[in-house]
Specification:
The complex is a heterodimer of chains A (336) and B (341). Chain A is α+β, with helices and mostly antiparallel strands and 336 residues long. Chain A is 23% helix and 28% strand. Chain A has helices at 3-11, 20-29, 167-182, 207-214, 254-266, 284-287, 315-331; strands at residues 35-38, 44-48, 57-63, 68-74, 80-85, 97-102, 105-111, 133-134, 148-151, 155-158, 161-164, 191-197, 218-226, 244-248, 271-275, 296-304, 311-314. Chain B has ten helices and 17 strands. In chain B, α1 (2-9) packs across α6 (170-182) and α6 (170-182) packs across α10. Classes of the chains: A alpha+beta (336), B alpha+beta (341).
Chain lengths: 336, 341
């Protein structure tokens, strides 16, 4: 895996029913596992056999979808009216460039904005329903309702950091791919099931049915979490560049969390603890409740500016997640 | 002409930092076969005196500004984030969640994740916005960036349809492109041209340019606020993209010469060119400074209708560009010897 693969993943469309991100991930996954499928709901699944009969199944999961918008109608002047598809930070929408994923391919657009010359300080922010996307449609032209739109792709690296849309959770997908690559051909006591789940941003919808099908004995979910930025509380955030955030929560398996921390120390993998007093708000919450219950760990990548077009992560943190997952694949034991 | 506009919009030119745009314009003028005298004044304005095929009976100046709205670094926080001020009018909510560039250094402007905001915080952007250039701490940031450095929007341009094109800095590289193409062929009469500095921080360059060039008539070429966008009722749209050049009768800085205004509108009409006016007294341009410079000048403004002005995604129409150039050419070939206005 190279950063250009992360660029491909982030650049692909994963809003709503858009399948480009899933297809991109499936393509990158194929050389690393025995079988790959895309489920009807858009989740990507893969399976790698270790060769041992009755080997326990370890599920590695990250979500493939991203926040965005869905066209509800086109106004008579040709502006697209949209509703939310996931919870994008709507404070960023003024003059924000977007792509509208039409049947004929992606079409550039921009969220309408009133210039400063024509407004007063304190004018209220328009509701999403009162906004529109200017995609250059002429009056009377339409884009079909149900067409998805997302933040315009871009990808910058600087000083060991990556800035792109949809790093939530393509950086997690990329970390899973890196861990699979690092362990390719290595001895392993697990069969490995891979899941890049759809629908997380709409309420963790895709993980449950796919995890049911995989029937794992243990799972590691990878998502992003909050990195400290000015204005936030340092104690409520991870530190960007501070390593993998190991989740600790009553809803996660304590033995697995402890194993992760122990392994990180053994292998000198930089880590930080993310303590949550309740559920985690990630697919891990659903995976733990699969069938009769699945012990699950959550590894998070500290991320700035979540759900905006300018999400940022540190490459070293993604690597730390991959390293810890790879270590667990090779050395981890069934929690008993 | 759209190629010229693309090239101009790719250049960084915050107010007072117009060097790259000026170098491009000077090169284009030097390569021109049209006889002209070009100089750069103490402000950095590019002044051109163009020799036409015939002598003019009065001095007519066309002016476009080279600068763009931008950000300027004012300091560095302990965490290594950049404090900044806006250079020209940019709404803070346009900055939130956008990418900027300080030379080659990419930066972003954001804040606490929406998930961590209180209900009240979710409704507004943070009081103090900062640029994140990815520095580990203040020391690293200081090695890369100094107070006074400027940042411009980093979003690349895109075509919205066959005619509509979006980019940053169209205000006023569109005027610069129009003026370069107006000067690309020898005009009927002698003509004056100015590519001005510091328009966005108070029309500061154009007054000095007009003082030096002493025009009888000065015409500002600019981009202006088209609000023909989603949900804006017709009476509040100000002007419309695709409806041709915008000829102003009044804005916040200028009460335009009435006879000139009528003449230009009629000139367009008589030659089958679309034109429109600005239906709201808002904004201002270099005409305001040129009107009062030296002994004063009669002024007009011919502007390109532009959506989402002062944002990373200004949008203009290539058809409007062509129609505006056609109108300017008519004006340039007549005004210097016109007896009826």
């Amino acid at each position: 895996m190279q950063l250009t693969d992360l660029e491909k993943l982030c650049g692909a469309a994963g809003v709503g029913n858009c399948r480009e991100a899933a297809e991109t991930a499936a393509q990158l996954l194929r050389p690393l596992v025995d079988t790959v499928d895309i489920r009807p709901d858009g989740s990507v699944t893969g399976y790698r056999r270790c060769g041992r009969p009755d080997a326990p199944v370890l599920l590695l999961e990250a979500h493939i979808d991203e926040v965005g918008f869905v066209v509800t109608n086109t106004d008579p002047a040709g502006f697209l009216k949209v509703d939310a598809c996931g919870h994008a930070d709507e404070r960023v929408l003024e003059a924000q460039p977007v792509l509208v994923y039409t049947e004929d391919g992606p079409r550039p657009g921009v969220f309408c904005s009133t210039p400063p010359h024509l407004r007063k300080d304190g004018d209220p922010r328009p509701a999403l329903a009162d906004r529109g996307i200017d995609a250059g449609l002429h009056p009377g032209e339409q884009v079909p309702a149900g067409t998805f739109a997302g933040f315009a792709p871009h990808f910058e690296t600087y000083n060991g950091q990556v800035c792109a849309k949809a790093l939530d959770d393509r950086s997690g997908v990329y970390a899973v791919l890196c861990a699979l690559e690092q362990t390719l051909g290595r001895p392993c006591a697990w069969d490995i099931a891979v899941l890049f789940a759809s629908g997380e941003e709409l309420g963790c919808r895709g993980a449950a049915p796919a995890a049911f099908a995989a029937a794992p004995q243990a799972a590691i979910a990878v998502d992003v979490s909050f990195a400290y930025v000015p204005g936030s509380q340092a104690h409520a955030c991870g530190r960007m560049g501070g390593g993998v955030m190991v989740g600790v929560s009553p809803c996660l398996d304590k033995r697995l969390s402890d194993d992760m921390i122990w392994l990180a120390r053994q292998k000198n993998i930089p880590y930080q603890c993310e303590v949550m007093g309740e559920s985690t708000g990630t697919d891990a919450d659903r995976i733990t409740l699969t069938r009769g219950g699945v012990p699950c760990a959550l590894l998070s990548i500290p991320l700035k500016y979540m759900h905006t077009p300018v999400e940022k992560t540190a490459v070293c943190d993604i690597q730390a997640v991959a390293d810890l997952m790879a270590a667990y694949i090779e050395e981890g034991e069934m929690p008993v | 002409m759209m190629q010229t506009l693309r090239e101009l919009c790719a250049l960084d030119g915050p107010s007072g930092r117009e060097e790259a745009v000026r170098a491009y314009i000077l090169k284009r003028l030097a390569d021109s076969k049209v006889p002209m005298q070009v100089r750069v004044d103490a402000m950095g304005n590019v002044l051109a005196e163009v020799t036409g095929r015939r002598r003019a009976t009065r001095r007519v100046l066309f002016a476009a500004h080279m600068d763009e709205v931008a950000l300027m670094v004012t300091g560095i926080t302990e965490d290594g984030y950049l404090r900044f001020t806006t250079v020209g009018g940019i709404a803070p909510d346009v900055l939130y969640g956008q990418r900027v560039r300080l030379g080659d250094i990419p930066g972003v402007i954001g804040g606490k994740a929406i998930h961590q905001c209180t209900p009240a915080e979710r409704e507004k952007i943070p009081e103090e916005l900062l640029i994140d250039v990815g520095a580990a701490d203040a020391q690293q940031a200081a090695a890369w960036v100094s107070p006074g450095d400027t940042a411009v929007f980093a979003q690349p341009p895109a075509s919205l349809n066959k005619e509509l094109w979006r980019a940053r800095a169209i205000d006023d590289r569109a005027g610069c492109a129009l003026l370069l193409h107006l000067l690309a062929e020898q005009p009927e009469y002698d003509l004056l041209a100015a590519f001005t500095v510091q328009e966005e921080v108070g029309l500061r360059g154009a007054g000095c340019a007009a003082y030096t060039l002493q025009p009888d008539i000065a015409v500002a070429l600019d981009a202006t606020t088209a609000a023909d966008t989603a949900g804006v009722p017709e009476d509040k749209q100000v002007c419309r993209v695709g409806a041709g050049p915008v000829v102003s009768f009044m804005d916040r800085r200028t009460l335009y010469d009435g006879a000139l205004y009528t003449y230009i509108r009629r000139l367009a009409q008589q030659n089958g060119l679309p034109s429109q006016t600005k239906e709201r007294i808002a904004g201002g341009n270099d005409a305001g400074a040129m009107q009062g410079a030296g002994p004063g000048a009669r002024v007009a403004a011919v502007s390109l209708p532009c959506r989402y002005i002062h944002s990373p995604c200004c949008a203009v129409s290539s058809r409007d560009m062509a129609d505006t150039l056609a109108l300017l050419r008519l004006m340039a070939n007549r005004l210097p010897a016109e007896k009826n206005v």
